[in-house]
Design a protein that fits this description.
Length: 229
């Protein structure tokens, strides 16, 4: 029997086995899991807050701001003056004395004009970007003084604008400034018109000065009389 072809077959088989076995060890393909996958991070998204509508700022809240009582206490009797009006007693006493006006008359004006509320007025005005409560004609504050700006700043008189020399609404909304300026005005009007009654008529509205004066004088008589026990 010829052994040469058989040997060749055996060698060829061994050679093929070695080649296949070697390749299987040299070339191994690892399994890929989800963790092995390189994930491209999604781009970060910046959340921009939605802009809220711009609110018109209001004049400083002076509704609950009491007059300072540290250095001086009010020496005026309260009588029947409402608490909301009497709380401004320190300013009333101070400027009534300076301008030589009966303080109880000033209290009466404040009662009629604002009821003691520094933000009195049904009209809303925006002046220099600030919201103010005023009368229909533009008057501001405790004694409803007409400022040089806003509605009242456009009212004409013979020699120009009627209230061009007045303080601004921003100043007159302050209770002390308003009482100081209003009391000075009242004193001048009483002197110019010759009596308290005529001065009060001149201080009030032009359309019905008689009614205005009767209301103020009623408060004045009540406040200036000693309270009955």
């Amino acid at each position: 029997m010829n052994k040469f072809p058989l040997l060749v077959v055996l060698l060829a088989g061994v050679f093929i086995f070695v080649i296949l076995f070697g390749l299987s060890n040299l070339v191994s393909i690892p399994s890929v899991t989800a963790k092995d996958v390189i994930q491209t991070p999604s781009p970060s998204v910046e959340v921009v807050p939605t802009e809220t509508p711009t609110k018109t700022p209001e004049a400083p809240n002076v509704e609950e701001k009491p007059p300072p009582q540290k250095e001086e206490a009010c020496g005026l009797k309260k009588n029947d003056i409402p608490n909301k009006v009497y709380r401004w007693c320190t300013f009333v006493e101070r400027y009534a004395k300076i301008y030589n006006v009966d303080p109880y008359l000033v209290f009466a004006i404040i009662t009629q004009e604002s009821g003691g509320d520094p933000k009195a007025g049904q009209t809303i005005q925006i002046i220099e970007g600030i919201k103010y409560h005023t009368s229909a004609s533009g008057a501001v504050g405790l004694m409803q003084v007409m400022p040089c700006d806003g509605i009242s700043g456009t009212i004409p008189c013979l020699n120009g604008l009627c209230f061009a020399d007045r303080p601004t609404a921003a100043k007159l909304v302050d209770p002390e400034t308003n009482i100081r300026y209003g009391t000075r005005m009242l004193a001048n009007l009483i002197r110019e018109n010759g009596s308290i009654l005529e001065g009060v008529k001149a201080y009030g509205p032009r359309d019905n000065p008689g009614y205005y004066a009767s209301m103020v004088m009623g408060y004045y008589n009540t406040y200036s009389s000693p309270k009955k026990k």
